[in-house]
Q: What sequence folds into this?
């Protein structure tokens, strides 16, 4: 598990721009993973699940499950591996994993100006709410969060 936590943190530090303050600390990830209802998936650079490949890791998802629903807490792909469909593959796998765990909906939340919103919509996520001024950029500018849901 510590090796996987190290891999997650390496990806996190590279993938999340500090301007937006979205990256989690090692402690936040570790504490989250201590709960049985939190799941993660690492994806190798060749697109296979990291446990099935000897390639280095390129991305990950972190998901929290509850009866009937799940929340995609984090999805990240190393900048040098973006544009190859790995983010889409990770999200599709999160949907399939949620389906396997009998979830009815998968939620995610993101800042309103996140370029990944197009991908979320393409995959069938629908906006269901806005949290006004939820995020704060490093320049103190406040940004709305959009909550999306995917019906499984």
A:
């Amino acid at each position: 598990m510590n090796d996987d936590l190290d891999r997650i943190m390496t990806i996190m530090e590279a993938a999340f721009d500090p301007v937006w303050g979205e990256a989690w600390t090692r402690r936040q990830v570790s504490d989250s993973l201590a709960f049985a209802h939190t799941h993660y998936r690492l994806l190798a650079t060749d697109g296979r699940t990291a446990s099935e490949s000897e390639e280095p890791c390129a991305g990950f998802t972190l998901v929290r499950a509850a009866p009937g629903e799940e929340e995609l807490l984090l999805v990240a792909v190393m900048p040098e591996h973006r544009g190859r469909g790995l983010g889409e593959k990770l999200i599709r796998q999160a949907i399939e994993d949620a389906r396997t765990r009998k979830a009815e909906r998968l939620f995610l939340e993101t800042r309103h100006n996140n370029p990944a919103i197009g991908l979320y919509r393409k995959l069938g996520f629908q906006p269901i709410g806005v949290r006004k001024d939820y995020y704060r950029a490093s320049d103190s500018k406040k940004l709305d969060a959009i909550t999306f849901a995917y019906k499984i």
